[in-house]
């Protein structure tokens, strides 16, 4: 266990179904962003047909700053989750989700990007705080990928 687990309020549990074709990964549970997260999923849920899974990189609800030890500790659980969910599309929200999932080569990304591997596509939003309007504008692009998948 890491230092974050010692002062946590509770463990943050994922939502959605397993397996799922679309997976949302957020950095950590922060109350002020919960409405943004819920709004994004609500907008996409009709197209997703409830075929989604939402989780967080940091598994403890805490006000402490995340350090590299905590990130590495939680990363192993996140990678197991990705294996279990086996999504076609992963939508990453925040710098920690990018680092934990794609690694350090995407550390400096400042705008939303698309990244693809042989079996999976990633849609990256480097920050929930920098430009919320950009996130909602890009929901249209996400919908395009989802519609393409379900056809």
Strand content: 15-25%
What name goes with the CATH superfamily? Uracil-DNA glycosylase-like domain
- Spatial strand arrangement across the major sheet: 2-4-3-6-8-7
Sequence stretches where pLDDT stays below 50 over 5 or more residues: none
- Counting structural domains, the number is 1
Structural class: alpha/beta
Reported CATH architecture: 3-Layer(aba) Sandwich
- Overall mean pLDDT: 76
Instruction: Please report the number of helical segments.
Output: 5
Please give the number of β-strands: 8
* CATH fold-level topology: Uracil-DNA Glycosylase, subunit E
Specify the helix fraction band.
Answer: 40-55%
Distance between the termini: 43 Å
What does the overall shape look like?
globular
Biggest sheet layout:
6 strands, mixed
Helices and strands, in order, run as HEEEHEEHEHEEH
Q: What Rg, in angstroms, do the CA atoms define?
A: 15 Å
Helices and strands, with pairings:
Elements: H1 3-6, E1 10-11, E2 15-16, E3 22-26, H2 34-48, E4 52-56, E5 60-61, H3 68-85, E6 89-93, H4 95-102, E7 113-116, E8 121-125, H5 132-150
Parallel strand pairs: 3-4, 3-6, 6-8
Antiparallel strand pairs: 1-5, 2-4, 7-8
């Amino acid at each position: 266990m890491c230092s974050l687990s010692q002062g946590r309020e509770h463990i943050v549990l994922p939502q959605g179904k397993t397996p799922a074709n679309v997976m949302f990964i957020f950095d950590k549970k922060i109350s002020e962003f919960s409405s943004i997260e819920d709004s994004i999923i609500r907008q996409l849920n009709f197209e997703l047909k409830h075929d989604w899974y939402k989780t967080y990189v940091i598994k403890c609800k805490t006000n402490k700053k995340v350090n590299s030890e905590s990130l590495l500790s939680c990363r192993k659980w996140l990678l197991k989750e990705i294996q279990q969910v086996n999504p076609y599309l992963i939508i990453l929200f925040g710098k920690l989700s990018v680092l934990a999932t794609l690694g350090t080569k995407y550390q400096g990304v400042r705008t939303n990007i698309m990244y693809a591997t042989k079996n999976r596509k990633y849609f990256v939003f480097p920050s929930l705080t920098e430009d919320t309007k950009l996130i909602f504008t890009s929901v249209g692009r996400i919908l395009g990928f989802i519609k393409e998948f379900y056809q």
